[in-house]
Structures are given as C-alpha cells and as structure tokens.
Amino acid sequence: MAKERFVEVYSQGITNVEKIIADTETGVNYLLASSTLTAGCGMSILVNQNGKPIVTSIG
To answer: Which of 7, 24, 29, 41 could be 34's S-S partner, Cβ–Cβ 3.0 to 4.6 Å?
Structure first.
C-alpha cells in the first residue's frame, strides 16, 4: 500500500474547523480552514516569522 502524501497533524473546532496538514514528501505544513456556517474553505501554507515555510519531519 502506498504511503499517503498528506496527513493531518492537528485539528480544532466543530463548526469552524482549522487543521494543519503536512506533506509527507516535503514536510511543508498547510493550514486548512473551513466553516459550515458560510460553506467556505481556504488553504494556505504556514510560514515562520521570517516568511519561510514551516516544515515538520515526518518519519
């Protein structure tokens, strides 16, 4: 079975949900935000204070 490319590393909320998704190949972290009240969803790369992507080591 192939390894999943993206994994959820953090989640919070029920109606307004924020999740951190990590790319298992690059380690880059993304924020996924969604709201059932507005039926909207958005995704953005997470960066540190210097504007560099936040990378998580996934083994």
So the answer is: 41
The domain containing residue 29 runs over which residues? Answer: 6-45
Is 13 contained in some domain?
A: yes
Contact 6, 24 (CB under 8 A): yes
Q: In a structure prediction context, what are the per-residue pLDDT tens digits for the chain, which is 59 residues long?
A: 678 999 999 999 988 889 999 999 999 999 999 987 777 889 999 999 999 999 988 76
Question: Angle at the Cα of 26 (from 14 to 54), degrees rounded to 5?
Answer: 60
Q: What distance in Å separates the CA atoms of residue 16 and residue 32, rounded to the nearest whole number?
A: 11
